[in-house]
Specification:
There is one protein chain. The protein is α+β, with helices and mostly antiparallel strands. It folds into 3 domains: about 260 residues, Jelly Rolls (Sandwich), CATH 2.60.120.200; about 100 residues, Phosphorylase Kinase, domain 1 (2-Layer Sandwich); about 250 residues, Transferase(Phosphotransferase) domain 1 (Transferase(Phosphotransferase), domain 1), CATH 1.10.510. The strands form 9 sheets. Strands 1, 3, 4, 7, 14, 15, 16 and 18 form an 8-stranded antiparallel sheet that branches. Strands 2, 5, 6, 8, 9, 10, 11 and 17 form an 8-stranded antiparallel sheet that branches. Strand 25 and strand 26 form a beta hairpin. Helix 8 packs antiparallel against helix 10 and helix 9 packs across helix 10. The protein is elongated, with a radius of gyration of 33 Å. Bound molecules: 2-acetamido-2-deoxy-beta-D-glucopyranose (5 copies). The site of one 2-acetamido-2-deoxy-beta-D-glucopyranose (NAG) has 5 residues, from loops. The site of one 2-acetamido-2-deoxy-beta-D-glucopyranose (NAG) has 4 residues, from loops. InterPro entries: ConA-like_dom_sf, Kinase-like_dom_sf, L-type_Lectin-RKs, Legume_lectin_dom, Prot_kinase_dom, Protein_kinase_ATP_BS, Ser/Thr_kinase_AS. It is a single-pass type I membrane protein. Its EC number is 2.7.11.1. This is non-specific serine/threonine protein kinase.
Length: about 675
């Protein structure tokens, strides 16, 4: 009886202390009662006083916060954070003995709940959009039981100090020091363990210590000790509590006791008074088995059978795909939708790699072979016969060259077409060139990539059985393999025609800035239109700029014209990519830029073939003198096109194209060797 009274007294202390404004806050819970904590998600307080943060349902969040706010700073003096300390006893029990997910975090947060936070690896603390953002003002100690390499987790049994994000500032494998010796602890063992979190407001140091419950005194050496001033992280008014989440494995996360203090040593927990951990699978209801259990089981069996049938039908439909007779001959090149679905984990956002021409690209790992692939999802337009389209894709897929990204096959389902490509670990070239990339690539690599792409394109144009026109050569379609070799990808737009035959007229496809003027005019894609795009690509790589981008409200910057004007002023190297920092072979860069101009010549007949391009690049033949060529300025074509549409033109959007041809102004032919300012003439004609 006396014990109960003392127990009640201890539990009521926080209320008194919290209401005394001048006193430093302190509270102790040796077990919890309902109402002690503010709970959300699946968190609950069990009948015997254990805080159970997560239950037996996967992908859940549980939050438990001390209901009152905590003042972490002295309003009247300065903005540094007070010292504080916390200790708690926890246990993690999983349905499996060696797997669990995802852990518990002790958290100091500006709000009592953490709205918008996600379960699983986000630990109920953050979501994809606010992870790592310093406006979060979240300080957390994570007890993490899953290794997530994206979050730089050191293992799947660690303690970490997290500030505003899921990537720990400091982390260590769970364990403790005793007499200079380190002892491991296993977070998911289901054993009770105690954690101490201390912040020294003067020293600006965070110490985290843990120990099994049997070690009554806090070990002298902390597990983690990290110097960091939390003044910018912790606001004056904050909330303290716990957050936990489960992923695909159901795990119960428990907290049995907790005490906290601002400025001073944390009150000891009365370990002997802590409630008992509930057994994992409770069988105490055996007596009720016949009255409640059996009917329940029977009805669940029926329900399961019905649900199972529904699921199977749903699954059938989900993975249904179209397979027609004519497709049988493509056999191995056709993938099962189910395999692609599994490979890309259901085309989930995390696997999303980017946008390719026509569709979204996802990373995947094929279920059987474990080969890494990139899967492009294309919405099929009914205009073009699917049969021809697939036939073309499959024949393009037979092409193999070390500078082409191999198309491994396709899959067709409803209105969707999926193209399966080799996965290129280093991504696309444009990410190293544009928008202030963190890493760029040096000139030697760029020159090798240029030569690689040239030889890939030469193969398509001249070495295959049929002439293959790529139709969308640009830096974002050049992918880099593990050795940074340039590989031309994205054959979604490629067209083939017999050697000597006239290429068919089709819809204009490609990307603005890489489209040859005659292609826009006639709609005919030829190897010369690929050469034009290759020229734009050369300038893009040499200058590190896109062929066209908006300079200000009224004007577009046209790379080709700028390079051209610098060249006619005798200073072509002025256009070199500043990211190269002047580290390049001037003669090579000059060759690339001049070749870029030559390939982008408005008259198709003047453009070199890819065979010649290769010879120039390999220095097997000298580049023709540019000054003797007549130039037709085509900048204003781009200007008008951009105004009307902007972005990529594709088969899927054929309607806009008639507008193009109508609005397309006639370019003037002039001999530029006598022209004073290219920019001036472009601008005056653009109006
Ligand atoms: C805040 O600072 C003032 C002035 O130094 C002091 O009188 C007061 O006790 C401090 N309050 C707390 C809660 O520490
Ligand atoms: C801010 O206050 C803390 C004590 O709360 C003190 O140790 C520290 O020196 C003060 N800093 C400044 C810049 O006044
Ligand atoms: C992420 O969390 C923030 C703040 O907690 C919330 O405002 C935002 O809506 C959330 N975003 C998503 C995508 O859930
Ligand atoms: C951080 O969050 C703020 C407010 O939600 C937002 O304005 C800002 O863009 C975010 N910063 C980053 C780097 O995401
Ligand atoms: C502790 O764990 C680490 C890695 O998990 C292991 O290498 C080491 O042998 C363990 N030590 C003991 C004493 O069990």
């Amino acid at each position: 009886m006396a014990a109960i009274l003392i127990f009640m007294l201890i539990l009521s202390i926080p209320i008194f202390l919290a209401s005394g404004a001048s006193e430093d806050l302190s509270f102790t819970f040796n077990g919890f009662r309902s109402g002690d904590l503010s709970l959300d998600g699946v968190a609950e307080i069990t009948s015997n006083g254990v805080l159970k943060l997560t239950n037996d349902v996967d992908q859940q969040i549980g939050h438990a916060f001390y209901p009152n706010s905590v003042s972490f700073k002295n309003q009247s003096t300065n903005s540094s954070v007070f010292s504080f300390s916390a200790t708690f006893v926890f246990a993690i029990k999983s349905e499996y003995h060696d797997l669990a997910g995802h852990g518990i975090a002790f958290v100091v947060s500006p709000s009592r709940g953490l709205p918008g936070a996600r379960p699983s690896e986000s630990l109920g603390l953050f979501n994809e959009s606010n992870n790592g953002n310093e406006t979060n003002h979240i300080f957390a100690i994570e007890l993490d039981t899953i290794q997530n390499l994206d979050l730089k987790d050191i293992n799947r049994n660690h303690v970490g100090i997290n500030i505003n994000g899921l990537v720990s500032e400091r982390a260590a494998p769970a364990g403790y020091w005793v007499d200079g010796e380190f002892k491991n602890l296993t977070l998911i063992s289901g054993e009770l363990m105690q954690v101490w979190v201390e912040y020294d407001g003067i020293d600006k140091r965070i110490d985290v210590t843990m120990a099994p419950i049997e070690i009554i005194h806090k070990p002298k050496t902390p597990l983690l000790s990290f110097r960091r001033d939390l003044s910018s992280v912790i606001n004056e008014i904050m909330f303290v509590g716990f957050s936990s989440s489960t992923g695909s494995i159901t795990t119960a996360h428990y907290v049995l006791g907790w005490s906290f203090k601002i400025n001073g040593e944390v009150p000891r927990l009365a370990l002997s008074q802590l409630p008992e951990l509930p057994p994992r699978s409770e069988k105490k209801q055996r007596s009720k088995f016949l009255t409640v259990g059996l009917p329940l089981i029977c009805s669940s069996i029926v329900l399961t059978a019905v649900l199972g049938a529904v699921f199977l039908i749903h699954r059938r439909r989900k993975f249904a795909e179209v397979l027609e007779d004519w497709e049988l001959e493509y056999g191995p090149q056709r993938f099962k939708y189910k395999d692609l679905y599994i490979a890309t984990k259901g085309f989930r956002e995390k696997e999303f790699l980017g946008f390719g021409g026509f569709g979204r690209v996802y990373k995947g790992v094929l279920p059987n072979s474990k080969i890494e692939v990139a899967v492009k999802k294309i919405s099929h337009e009914s205009r073009q016969g699917m049969k021809e389209f697939v036939a073309e894709i499959v024949s393009v897929g037979r092409l193999r060259h070390r500078n082409l990204v191999a198309l491994l096959g396709y899959c067709r389902r409803r209105e969707k077409l999926f193209l399966v490509y080799e996965y290129m670990p280093n991504g696309s070239l444009d990410t190293y060139l544009h928008d202030w990339p963190e890493v760029t690539i040096n000139w030697e690599q760029r020159f090798e990539i240029i030569k690689g792409v040239a030889s890939g394109l030469f193969y398509l144009h001249e070495q295959c059985e049929q002439v293959v026109i790529h139709r969308d050569v640009k830096a974002s379609n050049v992918l880099l393999d593990a050795e940074f070799n340039g590989r031309l990808g994205d054959f979604g737009l490629a067209k083939m025609h017999d050697r000597g035959a006239d290429p068919r007229t089709t819809h204009v496809v490609g990307t603005l800035g890489y489209l040859a003027p005659e292609h826009i005019r006639t709609g005919r894609a030829t190897s010369r239109t690929d050469v034009y795009a290759f020229g734009a690509f050369l300038l893009e790589v040499g200058c590190g700029r896109r062929p066209i981008h908006q300079q200000d409200e009224a004007d577009d910057f046209i790379l080709m014209d700028w390079v051209f004007s610098c060249w006619s002023n005798g200073d072509i190297l002025r256009t070199a990519d500043p990211k190269l920092g002047g580290n390049f072979d001037p003669s090579q860069l000059e060759l690339v830029l001049k070749l870029g101009l030559l390939c982008s010549h408005s008259s198709p007949a003047v453009r070199p073939t890819m065979r010649q391009v290769l010879q120039y690049l390999e220095a097997d033949a000298p580049l023709p003198e540019l000054a003797t060529l007549r130039w037709r300025l085509s900048g204003n074509v781009f200007l008008n096109l951009r105004r009307r549409n902007g972005g990529s033109i594709g088969d899927g959007d054929g309607d806009g194209l008639d507008d193009f041809s109508m609005s397309y102004p006639v370019s003037t032919e002039r001999n530029v060797t006598s022209s004073s300012s290219v920019a001036e003439s472009v601008l005056s004609e653009g109006r």
